[in-house]
Structure formats: C-alpha cells, structure tokens
Amino acid sequence: MCRTCGCGVSAGVQILNLQTGAERELRDDDRIAVSPARTQPGGATSRAEADHAHLHSHAHDHCDGVVHTHEHVHAKGLDEHHHHDHDHDHDHRHGDHAPASVIDLERAVLAKNDKLASRNRGWFAGREILAVNLVSSPGSGKTTLLERTIRALKDELSIAVIEGDQATANDGERIRAAGAAAVQVNTGVGCHLEADMVAEALDDLRPKVGSVVLIENVGNLVCPATFDLGERAKAIVLSITEGEDKPLKYPHMFQASDVMIVNKIDLAPHVDFDVAKAVANALTVNPNIAVLRVSARTGEGMEAWYEWLRRHSVEARGGVRLQVTEDQR
C-alpha cells in the first residue's frame, strides 16, 4: 500500500445512493484500512503499535437477509504503550524495526480485504450476478463507455453501477441519466476502491438476481491491481491518447485483467499511437488477455464489448463459457 497517495486512509469515504439521495459516511470503525493516526511522519508505523495490533469482527445484514462479517485491523495508541527501563547502555533504535512492522500490518490489511472480497464474490455468485471491475488511467473514457453500454443493453440486461471517484457525483449522475441504478463511492484521499466499500455500496444498490454490476474504479493503474473487490472479471480500458507501452510500465494491472478495451480508436488518425504494438505489449505480460478495439464516442467496435458482457453474463448464470474468438485477441 502506498502511504504518500493516501491508500488505506479511512477518513472521508462517502456512499451516495443516487436513486434516493441518501448519503452516509463509511465510518472509521467499519473500515479495514489503517488510520493515519497510527502512522508516524513519512508513513512508518511504530513497532510498538504493530505489536499491539489486534483484529475484531462484526456482522451486518447485506440486503436480502444475508449476513456478512467484517473483520478489521486496529492498533492501540501511543499512550497505551508499556515502558521498560534498562540498567545497561546499548543502542536501541526502534527505527530499525519499523519497515518489518509496516510490511506486517499492510499484509494484515490486504488479507482482510481479500477475505471480504471472497465474501463479495460468493454473494455475487449466489445471485448469478456478473461483476466487472473497470480500471484505467484518469480520462480513458470509462464513464462514456458505461453510458453507451447502458443505453444499448438496458432493455436486454439489468445493469447497475458502483461509481468510484475521489470526489463529486458527476459520473454517477451521468450513469443514472443513461438509465442504470448507481451508487457513488467517494474515496476522499484514497486512490482506489476496496472490498468493504463495494460491500457497503451493494447494500444501497440491491442489484437483481442475474444482473450485471459494473464497478468503475478510481482512475489509477497501480493500487486497483492489488485490491480485489470480489469481481468475476477485471477489464482495463486503455485510451489511444496514452502510450502503447502502458502494459509494460504497469504490468501488474494488465496481468490481473481479463480483457483490455482499447478505447478512442476514432482518434487513431490524429495521434501517434501504434495499436498493434500496444496489443503486442499487453499479450507479452498477459498472453491470455482478450483485446477489444472500440470507440465509446462513435460506437465503433462496441458490439464486441456487448457480446463479451452477454457471454460472461450467461456464464455467471450457470451457462457454458464460449470460446474467445480470434478478433478479440
């Protein structure tokens, strides 16, 4: 987890139900992340705090009566540390221990996230819901892609959206105007969605059995690769206004993704971007990634994306997964 960008900071996470207008804060004691109060300047966590870290859990009803248990990491404050005296002189540098403590605590946070992500995945599977985590850099066109998708498929598929941003409900309102139920999750200083945020958003979203839940993650090609949300598939949107070397620069994200959507191909004549090279780079880091070339603005190539959603939705409902065709490579 990165300390400088605010990952793991719990303050300021807001859940906004765009259907009802109800807004609530994801409270600190509901979070799985580490509070900044437990870190020292520069992001280090003291050994004493890590030694006093403990876990606890609580349960709540997650929509139709299913109970989910949330487990959290907590650490006692500095005023609760014990003291000890020494009669002999020696060099006692606590800073030497801090890196190991930080790593241990961060592993615990990621482990708790993974546990809740597993519960989310079971929740989706039990309701035959296709959950897709859309990730990208800022400005790749994810929201425009979702808008066109909703308008094209809303009479065919039941689509609901969890919209992640650091601030504002602008994109969530665009999604709702396109015809889909949406819940906005504002992460404050956090640069990615986490499994507990998705679980809380689902309480408000209440997607139908057999539906499609599209999760638009915060624009970032680093942290969303690490934080599992419980999705069935991860789709990365790569705009041709970015470099074709993005898959090589951010290999973990492309390795974690099931499909790469190369967006804004209508701009190809006007930018210096080699689509074939971008695809080759993506296949280098992930030979199994499917590739779609689309323009969310003009609609070019979008039918292949719609077919991808149809196929995976059928699979989520217990159908047989169809073979990926060559034009998706």
Describe the overall structure.
It is a single chain. The protein has 329 residues and is α/β, with parallel strands linked by helices. The chain has a domain at 128-328: P-loop containing nucleotide triphosphate hydrolases (Rossmann fold), CATH 3.40.50. Helix content is 31%, strand content 19%. It contains 9 helices and 11 strands. The chain has helices at 47-51, 98-126, 142-153, 170-178, 195-205, 246-249, 251-256, 275-285, 302-316, and strands at 14-17, 23-25, 54-61, 67-74, 130-136, 159-165, 181-186, 212-216, 233-239, 259-263, 290-293. The strands form 2 sheets. Strands 2-1-7-6-8-5-9-10-11 form a 9-stranded mixed β-sheet, with helices on both faces. β6, α4 and β7 (181-186) form a beta-alpha-beta unit. α2 (98-126) runs parallel beside α5 (195-205) and α3 (142-153) packs parallel to α4 (170-178).
Keywords:
disordered C terminus, nine-stranded mixed beta sheet, two-stranded antiparallel sheet, Rossmann fold, 329 residues, 19% strand, 9 helices, single chain, alpha/beta, 11 strands
- Count of beta strands: 11
The helicity comes to 25-40%
Query: Tell me about the biggest sheet?
Result: 9 strands, mixed
Q: What top-tier CATH class of the domain at 128-328 fits best?
A: Alpha Beta
Measure the end-to-end span: 32 Å
Strand numbers in spatial order across the main sheet: 2-1-7-6-8-5-9-10-11
Query: Which of globular, elongated, flat, extended, rod-shaped describes the shape?
Result: globular
Structural class: alpha/beta
Strand content: 15-25%
